[in-house]
Design brief:
The structure is a single chain. The chain is an alpha+beta fold. It is built from three helices and four strands. A four-stranded mixed β-sheet has the order 1-2-4-3. Helix 1 packs across helix 2. It starts with about 25 loop residues before the first strand and ends with a strand.
């Protein structure tokens, strides 16, 4: 791959085979975990190659409507995401609810987002920040 912004291309489940331990200061996984067959294994691999932190964004399970996304294998709430990060070895885990807007959401998508926030009082995305060391 000829892209100056990409350091490596590989399966996240096997990243430690391609990257030495503690190579990167941190990792950003935005809307990745819900598509992986083994998110715990993936996070354990990321844990090996980062020095300090991980930041994750996933859809908030309390927002996602049944059948809304057919390519999501898992869904996450604050508890399940925190538990997953803890089991992968991360410490000092903070999870925030946030709102994800697509670049140009159509009018129906905007209405669904606004109605969800109004009726349920929840945001449609979770942002997690966790440290490798306490």
């Amino acid at each position: 791959m000829d892209n100056p912004w990409v350091d490596i291309v590989c399966d996240v489940h096997e990243i430690s085979k391609h990257v030495p331990p503690d190579t990167y200061d941190g990792a950003l996984l935005f809307h990745i975990l819900e598509h992986l067959e083994n998110p715990l294994k993936a996070l354990r691999e990321v844990y090996k190659v980062v020095k300090y932190f991980i930041m994750i964004k996933v859809p908030n399970a309390r927002y996602v409507l049944s059948g809304e996304s057919h390519d999501h294998i898992y869904s996450w709430n604050e508890y399940t995401l925190s538990n997953l990060l803890n089991r992968a070895g991360f410490k000092r885990i903070k999870i925030y609810e946030s709102t994800r807007y697509t670049r140009n959401p159509g009018p129906l998508k905007k209405i669904r987002i606004y109605l969800s926030e109004f009726m349920r009082g929840h945001k449609n995305e979770l942002t997690a920040f966790a440290w490798k060391r306490p």
